[in-house]
Design a protein that fits this description.
Keywords: Membrane, Transmembrane, Transmembrane helix. With 263 residues, the chain is of the alpha+beta class. It has helices at 2-12, 69-100, 192-204, and strands at residues 106-119, 124-135, 142-154, 157-164, 167-169, 174-182, 206-221, 225-242, 249-251, 257-258, 260-262. The longest helix has 32 residues, at 69-100. 17% of the residues are buried.
């Protein structure tokens, strides 16, 4: 009986020590993190200065250049615009010529006389009478001359001035006007070098003058069409023959001298 009681007590007595765990704390389940003396870098941080990138395939480096397509596009646009404007101006001029024909009148020197001419190396006193013929070859346009001034020239030296009153030139019309020029109308200094050549020509009895004009004109066709013109007229190589050392002079031949016209 005593032995049975002892066995029952041994079976019912609790164990004073809990069972050991499956894994001991002395053996961690995960390895410890590596040693990091500095905080980890950012995900997009720049590499250190001494970083080296290998190029195992020896590809050529990529060079980025600034695009010039914008400048080329603007240049093409500017060139195209200028071309269209030039072509348009030529087309308008050609169309005007087809409709109206020639716009500029014709100028010619009908006669030139020099009633008095006294020249020395340092002075000049002279007068000129010039008759100019203006012809309108257009059959649709009227030409109104508001201003016309002329100069008498010897080797690019202006010797005398002249002007004329405004006048009207009808379609297919012709006008002859007279201009009187003299040295009295010109305020000029002594051109001794120019006068020396003039003295020599006068002694030979032949002097070549030029008449150059500037004119402001208005072309009209009815009441709808109008155009302003500024004309420059050059009548060159007008050779005057003098009678004797002190006599008057006039154009050597009686034919009219055609003039050049610039618009």
């Amino acid at each position: 009986m005593g032995g049975a009681a002892t066995d029952d007590q041994s079976k019912q007595a609790p164990n004073p020590y809990p069972p050991p765990p499956i894994y001991s704390n002395s053996y961690p389940t995960h390895p410890p993190p590596p040693y990091q003396p500095y905080p980890p870098p950012y995900a997009f941080a720049a590499p250190p200065p001494a970083a080296y990138y290998s190029n195992p395939h020896n590809y050529p480096p990529v060079v980025y250049q600034e695009s010039t397509s914008g400048h080329l596009t603007f240049a093409k646009f500017l060139l195209t615009t200028m071309t269209f404007l030039l072509v348009g101006a030529c087309a308008m001029s050609f169309l005007t010529w087809l409709i109206f024909g020639s716009l500029t009148p014709d100028f010619s020197v009908k006669s030139l006389s020099v009633p008095s001419f006294n020249v020395s190396n340092s002075s000049l006193t002279a007068a000129w009478d010039v008759n100019i013929t203006v012809k309108n070859s257009n059959e649709k346009l009227d030409v109104f001359f508001e201003r016309l001034e002329a100069v008498i020239v010897y080797e690019d030296t202006v010797l005398g001035l002249a002007d004329t009153d405004p006048f009207h030139l009808s379609p297919k019309g012709e006008v002859v006007f007279e201009m009187k020029a003299s040295t009295n109308d010109l305020q000029q200094e002594s051109f001794a070098e120019s006068y020396r050549g003039l003295v020599e020509d006068r002694r030979r009895g032949r002097v070549s003058f030029a008449v150059r004009m500037a004119a402001d004109a208005t072309l009209r066709s009815g009441t709808m069409w109008r155009r302003q013109l500024r004309l420059r007229v050059f009548c060159e190589d007008l050779e005057v023959k003098f009678d004797g050392p002190t006599g008057p002079g006039k154009l050597e031949d009686g034919t009219q001298k055609e003039c050049l016209i610039y618009v």
